[in-house]
């Protein structure tokens, strides 16, 4: 049976994990499962008026967490 490995990207991801007790990604065997990613920047700030920027940050957050889990992103 595969063991679970939990990953968070540095910065906002680790901060939110510490405060809210969740992981941004879990690796089970050779499968990476990502949690929902928000449109926050590296410090955890969210610009409520810039939805296009939030979308770009959300995809950047997915890229960073995939890299933290050992993938290329």
How would you sum up this structure in a few lines?
The chain is α+β, with helices and mostly antiparallel strands. The protein is 37% helix and 16% strand.
Report on this model:
The structure is a single chain. With 73 residues, this protein is an alpha+beta fold. The protein has a single domain (4-68), classed as RutC-like (60s Ribosomal Protein L30, Chain: A, 2-Layer Sandwich). The chain contains 2 helices and 3 strands. The protein has a 3-stranded antiparallel beta sheet, with helices on one face. It is elongated. The relative contact order is 0.23. InterPro entries: RutC-like_sf, YjgF/YER057c/UK114. It holds the Pfam family Ribonuc_L-PSP.
What are the defining features of this structure?
alpha+beta; 73 residues; three-stranded antiparallel beta sheet
Main sheet specs: 3 strands, antiparallel
Write down how many β-strands occur, each being a DSSP E stretch of 2 or more residues: 3
Outline: elongated
Q: Compute the gyration radius: what is it?
A: 13 Å
The low-confidence runs, each spanning 5 or more residues with pLDDT under 50, are none
* Helix-strand topology string: EHEEH
CATH topology: 60s Ribosomal Protein L30, Chain: A
Q: Percent range for helical residues?
A: 25-40%
Strand order of the largest sheet: 1-2-3
So how many helices?
2
State the CATH superfamily name: RutC-like
Q: What proportion of the residues form beta strands (DSSP E)?
A: 15-25%
Question: What's the N-to-C terminus distance?
Answer: 26 Å
The class by helix and strand makeup works out as alpha+beta
- Assigned CATH class: Alpha Beta
Q: Please indicate the count of domains.
A: 1
Q: At CATH's second level, what is the architecture? A: 2-Layer Sandwich
Pfam families: Ribonuc_L-PSP
InterPro entries: RutC-like_sf, YjgF/YER057c/UK114
């Amino acid at each position: 049976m595969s063991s679970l490995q939990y990953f968070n990207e540095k910065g906002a991801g680790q901060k939110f994990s510490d405060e809210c007790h969740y992981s941004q990604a879990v690796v089970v065997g050779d499968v990476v499962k990502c949690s929902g990613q928000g449109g926050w920047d590296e410090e955890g700030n969210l610009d409520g008026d810039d939805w296009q920027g939030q979308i770009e940050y959300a995809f950047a957050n997915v890229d960073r967490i995939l890299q933290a889990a050992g993938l290329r992103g």
